[in-house]
Amino acid sequence: MRLFSKKSKSLTSRQEHYAGRIANKILNAQRHTADYLNKKTALLSPKTWLILLIVFCAAFGSCSMFLLIQAFY
């Protein structure tokens, strides 16, 4: 007995063509964004990266703790 069977649907060649074009556009946008961010942060020293990491972790850790405490009170 299969309650949740998956029906395999194959795409037509036209659908695969459009899916490939969409995937390429997404990958190009990701690559463009990554290159931009790498250029902007290339001059940061390791000490600055460590400080940014600590600030990031502290900020999101405190937000998480706040939400956790608010859930019980």
Can you describe what's shown?
The protein is mainly α and 73 residues long. Helices cover 75% and strands 0% of the residues. It contains two helices and no strands. The longest helix has 28 residues. The mean pLDDT is 92.
Write the layout of secondary structure elements.
Blueprint: H1 13-40, H2 46-72
Secondary-structure-based class equals mainly alpha
Biggest sheet features? none
Share in helix? over 70%
Please indicate the percent range of residues in DSSP E strands (runs of 2 or more).
under 5%
Give the tags.
single chain, 73 residues, mainly alpha
Quick summary of this structure?
By secondary structure, the protein is mostly helical.
